Amino acid sequence: MKSTVVALAALLSASALAGPVLAQAPAAFGAYKPRDDYAQQVVTAFYLPLRDGTKIAVSLHRPAVDGKPVDTPLPVIWHHTLDIEKAGVRVADATAATDRHTLSDLTRAGYVVAVVARRGNGASFGTRRGYEDFTEGFDAYEITEWLAAQPWSNGQIGMYGCSNTGEAVMHALIARPPHLKAAFAGCFAWDRYDGHTRGGIISQYGTGPVRTLEDDLKATPVQGDEDRVQLRQAAEEHQKSTNLLELMKSMPYRDSWSPLVMAKFWGEVSIGAYLDQVKASKVPLYIQGGWYDDFRTEGLIAQANLPDQARIVIGPWRHCLNDGFDLRAEQLRFFDHYLKGKTTGVETDAPIHYFTVGAPRGQEWRSARAWPRPDAANRLFLSAEALAPKAPAKSRASSVTVDYAPVCPPDAVKPNWGPFAQPCHPAKASFVYNGSRLAADTEMTGTPLVDLWISSTAPEQPIFAYLEDVAPDGTVTVVSEGRQRASLRKVVPATWETIGIPWRRSRIEDHQPLKTDEPVKVSFDMLAVSYVFKAGHRIRVAVSGADPRERARTEVSPAAALTLHTGGDTPSSVVLPFGTAR
Predict the structure, then answer these.
(1) What number of other Cβ atoms are within 10 A of residue 385's Cβ?
(2) For residues 443 and 507, is the Cβ–Cβ distance under 8 A?
(3) pLDDT of residue 22
(4) What's the mean per-residue pLDDT of the chain?
(5) Which of 29, 92, 285, 547 is buried deepest, with most CB atoms within 10 A?
(6) How far is CA 168 from CA 4, 46, 510, in A?
(7) pLDDT tens, 109-140?
(8) Cα(321)–Cα(319) distance, rounded to whole angstroms?
């Protein structure tokens, strides 16, 4: 092993820079190109014992010259993730990174990077008590302060994560370690109940993976454990972790107490419940979202609640991806300002940058000071399979038998599983309402809302609504979707800013089972959009009683009859966000 490292170091030394060189970089969104400081990194992998004795696996990535780590104390960026990276000496560039979701290659920009496997994951010991309980928040505090105290650290600590690791970043903000100075968090749930069981419906997020012992034994071991003895011991401990799907099923309400974790877990792990602590941290926060990700509205709500410290970028991306955009450069622009004190322009930018799907080439990226709130002036009514500016005078009821086996056609875009799965038009057992053909290109930027009057023969009825773009040839593109369990329809004022979205408290006391054939109003949001419907296309709204991405569908026999009521005293409608953000 040692000879291999030395040989590789010699091979790389010719391309290594002599040391850090500060470069003047353009200060513009998406165009930050500073010169690399270092071409190499040295990676060590070891166990860090925490306060309770749990051994946590760390891979430490340090900038290097001629195969040796530099001695200059540097700022540190760390990732509280699921596995560490392999030790050794290697080229430090984005294409050589072993995981596209880590920032370990940022050693080239003069950072030390630590990749830390959360307890119960990878080579780390311990168990997962549910889905990121606050024990991990205390771990983040301890790890941050340990990183700040090391001789190769200058005490300026940043943190990065996306998806579950983005939520790990937010838990660190709640814990408020003194040396945490900047945080980048992508595709996370501001409120865990709303994010992972949106509308009270368990869907494709947060219910896995459930890893076997064999799965965990594929993790990267620390140095000195090449025979994987300690890795096996850690993996055996992991098998005692809480089953996440069973945990979610045990908590159908926001205030459910779960015997699996002996707590009202949704409140314990929701970032919104700790709003005052996050604000008090004053840590600058950069949020990543995507128009094809289920957490995009959650990110906008987080930014709206932290207007003085948070910014957000939303691109035409699936979960934690950034196809066609140099997100690493934007992350570096952020960290260079807050951890190195450079003037990069990020400090004067508008807090919201978003991509408008279908906008003219070169005009897709926009910026705004605030996300637009829904405007009731844009309300359209469901009327005889059409979208109309006025509600029909007479009531009308249409019924379908719920299809409990809905499927989506094959999705050629990959990844297309789990958190990357996309909604599709409900071809069976759905209600469809079409707008007129558009005379001109029409932009929607904002959050669509639906007010649906429904009844069902089942006491528990999920409702799904889809905003669709129908091309002249009949091709259907789902632009956005929303979902709501009708028995949890009660709307109350939220305890935080919801950017104009109706909020359901969804406590046990709010549960109102449906009565057969008795219409009730169900109000909820579809996910935020920025999209241009082209001239000649139609805007369409579809409604269904089941969705292919449900993880814990409740079926009744015989199948429920779902009725949608329109007009008269039951004026079902949608509010569509025509226009742009400001």
Answers:
(1) 12
(2) no
(3) 39
(4) 92
(5) 92
(6) 35, 21, 30
(7) 999 999 999 999 999 999 999 878 889 999 99
(8) 6
Amino acid at site 396:
R
Contact 60, 46 (CB under 8 A): yes
Q: Identify residue 202 by its one-letter amino acid code.
A: I
Question: CA geometry: angle at 283 spanning 497 and 350, to 5°?
Answer: 65
**Does the structure show a pLDDT above 70 at 98?**
no
The CA distance from 453 to 522, in Å, is: 6
Q: What is Dmax (Cα atoms) for the chain?
A: 84
Burial environment of residue 142 by CB neighbours within 10 A (0 to 12, 13 to 18, 19 or more): middle
The rounded Cα 140 to chain-centroid distance in angstroms is 19
The token pair that represents 365 in the structure block? 């990226």
Cα(442)–Cα(537) distance, rounded to whole angstroms?
10
Instruction: Dig out the tokens for 480 from the structure.
Output: 């956005």
The confidence score (pLDDT) of residue 94 equals 59
Kindly state the average pLDDT of the residues 409-429: 94
Nearest to 490 by CA among 511, 463, 517, 519: 511
Residue for token pair 């959009």: 529
Q: By C-alpha distance, which of 449, 453, 465, 452 is closest to 500? A: 449
Number of H helices, E strands in the chain: 11, 25
pLDDT digits (tens, 9 = 90+) for 270-288: 999 999 999 999 999 999 9
Contacts of 200 (CB under 8 A, 6+ apart): 252, 253, 484, 485, 487, 488, 504, 506
Quick one: DSSP state of residue 96? Answer: G
pLDDT band at residue 18 under the 50/70/90 scheme: very low
Mean pLDDT across 163-179: 97
Single pTM value for the model = 0.93
CB-based contact 70:154 (threshold 8 Å): no
Determine the 3-state secondary structure of 135 from DSSP.
helix
Q: In this structure, what token pair is assigned to residue 51? A: 């306060």
Amino acid at 426: P
Contact indicator for 149, 142 with CB cutoff of 8 Å = no
Q: Are 391 and 571 in contact (CB under 8 A)?
A: yes
**Alpha-carbon gap, residue 159 to 182, rounded angstroms:** 6
Long-range pairs, 490-495, Cβ under 8 A, ≥24:
491/523, 495/272, 495/275
* pLDDT over 70, % of the chain: 93
Contact present, 290 and 318 (Cβ < 8 Å): yes
The residues with which 431 forms a beta bridge, in sequence order, are 543
Q: What is the pLDDT of residue 208?
A: 63
In sequence order, which residues have a C-beta less than 8 Å from that of residue 568 and are 6 or more positions away? Answer: 391, 392, 393, 394, 395, 396
Name the nearest CA neighbour of 181 among 308, 283, 254, 70.
283
Exposure pattern of 199-231 as b/e (b: 16+ CB <10 Å)? bbbbbbbbbeeebeeeebeebbbbeebeeeebb
Taking alpha carbons only, the member of 464, 554, 466 closest to residue 513 is 554
Structure tokens at 293: 């990700």
- Within its chain, how far is the Cα of 91 from the centroid? 30
- Strand 55-65 relative to strand 476-485, pairing: unpaired
